[in-house]
Specification:
globular; mainly alpha; 208 residues
């Protein structure tokens, strides 16, 4: 077996703890679901999973180590990711000010998937997290480290599926109930915009 059973169990437990702790990914999916319903929430989730896989491959290949060693590259990624989230937030707040109806398919699903992927890929702290996190559960006496990291990495997005399912179902139900009211529609757009702005500013102001 290429993975140590004990380390695998510890990794699964650590992933569960991470998933039940509110974080940027959870807030991003919440904001997208409030803005466009369950379909948009799942599109955002798939995009985030794609971004996670990019970071896992980066950690496996050593790209994350390069980012950690190059402050300018780290800063550039952080600024791009933060500005992108701020741009999404401003767009949602403008929709609130215009009085756009809630749950309007404002963006194709493919674009929302891309938004989720870009949000995750341009967050260098996610790359550094996997660089520091995955190697802790690698047994040097078994398969090569890169093989074990590639096997361990997808466990996190797989375990996140039921957590996101509950989050999306709850947020979509709430947004459907409020969608009949124009005032509530403004509120939904405003809340999703505030979430995106908060995530963007958090990334822009974060220190390495």
């Amino acid at each position: 077996m290429p993975l140590d059973p004990g380390l695998l169990a510890a990794y699964i437990l650590a992933c569960v703890v991470l998933l039940v702790t509110p974080g940027p990914d959870m807030m991003f999916v919440l904001g997208q679901t409030l803005a466009g319903g369950a379909r948009r929430g799942w599109a955002a989730t798939i995009g985030l999973w794609c971004g996670v896989m990019v970071h896992i491959l980066g950690a496996t290949l050593g790209v994350a180590a390069i980012i950690a060693a190059e402050p300018a590259l780290f800063t550039a990624l952080r600024l791009v990711g933060g500005l992108y989230l701020v741009w999404l937030g401003i767009g949602a707040i403008r929709a609130a000010l215009r009085g756009d109806p809630a749950l309007r398919p404002a963006a194709p699903v493919s674009r929302v998937v891309l938004q989720g992927a870009l949000t995750n890929v341009t967050n260098p702290k996610v790359a550094l997290f996997f660089l520091a996190f995955l190697p802790q559960f690698v047994d040097p006496d078994r398969a090569p480290a890169w093989v074990q990291m590639l096997l361990l990495g997808p466990v996190l997005p797989l375990l996140s599926a039921p957590f996101f399912a509950v989050l999306i179902a709850g947020a979509a139900g709430a947004s459907r109930s409020l969608a009949r009211s124009a005032r509530a529609a403004r509120w939904l757009h405003g809340v999703s915009g505030a979430i995106f702005l908060g995530l963007g500013l958090r990334l822009l102001l974060a220190r390495r």
